[in-house]
Amino acid sequence: MRCGVDEAGRGPLAGPVFAAAVILGVRHGITGLADSKTLSAARRDALEPKIKKYAIAWAIASASVEEIDALNILQATLLAMRRAVEALDKLPSEVLVDGLFCPEIAIPSRAIVRGDSLIPEISAASILAKTARDALMVSLHSQYPGYGFDRHKGYGTARHLEALRLHGACEVHRRTFAPVRILLGETCRSTAIV
């Protein structure tokens, strides 16, 4: 049994990075699997319960903002991937990972560039990771309504950058990412001068 693994949220300025691991099996019967970035939010939301229902096993994990800032985004992503694989209730014989790098796990693994558009298990993992992360970012909007997390999900849009300039960084912003780091540096300088 092979397992697909993918992440969501490497690029945003805020929020954790998520990863999912999915074992589908030969006769999963789920149609329309594709790279989550190519699907509409409505299509991802429709596929998510089907994946959870028909997959042999699935798991979703994350690495926190603090882990991202401490380790760097690549290492935090690999940590989230490892956590997702280790959380599966069935042991896969092989792990197929979207991208260039594999997490350190005891199971044979292969990195596959564009795997999320080529391998159904990776596509399914991509969808689960993306829907889980998006749901968290929508929920964070109620805690931090000034940033628009429900719309841009933490990505560095013009609106998000403007909110950062207006309100400063909040607890869920990644301090090591350049736009946030620069803003914090400017804030510190202006505070020191005043």
Describe the structure.
With 194 residues, the protein is α/β, with parallel strands linked by helices. It folds into two domains: 2-141, Nucleotidyltransferase, domain 5, CATH 3.30.420.10; 144-186, no CATH class. It is 48% helix and 15% strand. It is built from eight helices and five strands, in the order ββαβααββααααα. The protein has helices spanning 41-54, 65-71, 73-87, 115-118, 120-143, 149-152, 158-167, 178-193; strands at residues 2-8, 17-23, 57-63, 94-98, 109-112. It has a five-stranded mixed β-sheet. A hairpin with an 8-residue loop joins β1 (2-8) and β2 (17-23). It is globular. The model is unreliable at 187-194 (pLDDT under 50).
Number of domains: 2
CATH class of the largest domain: Alpha Beta
Strand content: 15-25%
Uncertain segments: 187-194
Name the overall outline. Answer: globular
Tell me the series of helices and strands, N- to C-terminal.
EEHEHHEEHHHHH
Major beta-sheet overview: 5 strands, mixed
CATH architecture of the largest domain: 2-Layer Sandwich
